[in-house]
Amino acid sequence: MILGLETSCDETAAALVTDDGRIVANVVSSQAELHARFGGVVPEIASRHHLENVIPVLRATLEDGGATLDDVDRVAVTRGPGLIGALLVGLSAAKSLAWARGLPLVPVDHLHGHVASLYLEPDPVEPPFVCLLASGGHTMLLDVRERGSFEVLGSTLDDAAGEAFDKGARLLGLGYPGGAAIDRLAREGDPDTHEFPVARVPGLDFSFSGLKTALLYAVRDRGQTLATADLAASYQRAIVRALVGRLREAQERTRLDRIAVVGGVAANSELRAALPDAAFAPLALCTDNAAMIASAARYAVPVPYPDYLGLDAYV
User: Fold this and answer.
1) If residue 290 lies in a helix (H) or strand (E), which one and from where to where?
2) What is the mean pLDDT of residues 185-210?
3) 112/140 same-domain check
4) CB-based contacts of 119: which residues, under 8 Å, 6+ apart?
5) pLDDT, averaged across the chain
6) Same domain membership, residue 148 and residue 19
7) What is the pLDDT of residue 34?
8) What pLDDT score does 224 carry?
9) Quick check: 134 and 155 in contact, CB under 8 A?
10) Other CB atoms within 10 A of residue 248 CB
11) Dihedral (C-alpha) 178, 181, 182, 187: value to the nearest 10 degrees?
C-alpha cells in the first residue's frame, strides 16, 4: 500500500493506492472558495491552510480506506513543481511519516503524477500514446512510450490553458476557478459569435497571451452589445481549437494511434466532445489529487530510510 500526499497548490490531498493501481481511498480538501475572493491562489494563505488541513486529511484517508499506518509500505509525495511554501508542507509531513515508521519515501514530479492518473484501475491506459497535459500551471504535449517516463514535444510559451481560462473568467466578471465558470456559461452561448485568434507558433508549442488580449479588447470595445455567454463560448472554442489542433499535429508526427488528456482542463466538456477518440483522466482525477501521486510512485525509485531527510522541494 502506498500513502500519497499532494500539496502543490491549493488542494490538500491524501490517498491510499495499491501496487496494482487500485484506489483504496482518495481525499481532497480544496481551498477554491477561500481564494475565490482574490481571483486566484494566494501562496501564503494556501501554505497556512495546508498546515491546518494535512493531518485531518491524512486521518480521513486512513479512515475511508479502513487502514492504519501499519498497512502502509511506502510514502509518496509531490516534490515539485508548484508553490514552494505549499510543497514544503506536504514534503515535511511525508518525511515525518516515513521517518517515524522507518519507511522509504518516493518523491514524485507533479507532471508525472498527472500522466500516472491514466494508469489507475478500473480502466488503465497502456502506453504508447501522445498525451496533452493541460492545467492551470502547465500546457504540454508528451510522447509517452512507457510508464514512468515521457518526452516533452511542446509546451506553452506564456500562459497555460488553465491560466487562460482563469484570466478570461476574470475579464468576464465570472468567479474562480475560471475554467468551470466559463464551461458552464459557454453552454448558453454561441461560439461562432466572435472569431478569436489561435496563435500559430513554431513547432508544437502553444501561446495563449494573444487570445487573452483579444478577449480584453472584445470586452472593452463591445461592452454590453455582445452577450457574456457568447463571449465565453467563443473564447472557450478558441482555447479548445488550439489544444486539439496541436494534439492532432503531435499525433501525426509521432505516428501514434492513441491520444490521452490529463490535468484540470481535461474536465472541460467541449474539449472532451472534440476528442471522442481520446482517453481522458477520470473527472475526479483531473484536478490535483494524491491518488495520481501514489500511482506515479509505483514507477519511481524509492529513497531509502533515512536518506530522504535532506530532500527539498522545487518550483
Assistant:
1) none
2) 94
3) no
4) 21, 125, 147, 295, 298
5) 96
6) no
7) 93
8) 55
9) no
10) 13
11) 170
How far apart CA 5 and CA 133 sit, in angstroms, is: 20
d(CA 137, CA 141): 14
Q: Is residue 202 part of a domain?
A: yes
pLDDT of residue 181: 95
Same domain, 274 and 142: yes
Which domain covers residue 259, as residue numbers? 129-281
**Whether 103 and 134 share a structural domain:** no
pLDDT at 223 over 90: no
* Assigned domain for 124 exists: no
Which amino acid does the sequence have at 244? V
* 49 and 181 share one domain: no
Q: Give the per-residue pLDDT at 222.
A: 66
Residue 276 belongs to a domain: yes
Nearest Cα residue to 105 out of 93, 118, 116, 115: 93
User: What is the domain count for the chain?
Assistant: 2
Identify the CATH number of the domain in which residue 138 sits: 3.30.420.40
pLDDT tens digit string along 33-52? 999 989 899 999 999 999 99
pLDDT in tens, 148-191: 999 999 999 999 999 999 999 999 999 888 999 999 999 999 99
Record the cell numbers describing residue 147, joined without a space. 510508464
- Helices and strands, counts by H and E, the chain: 10, 10
Cell representation of residue 118 = 491514466
- 165 and 262 in a single domain? The answer is yes
Domain assignment present for 212: yes
Kindly provide the b/e burial profile for residues 40-76, where b requires at least 16 CB atoms within 10 angstroms of the residue's own CB. bbbeebbbebbbebbeebbeebbeebebeeeebebbb
Look at residue 227 and tell me whether its pLDDT is greater than 90: no
Q: How far apart are CA 238 and CA 13, in angstroms?
A: 32
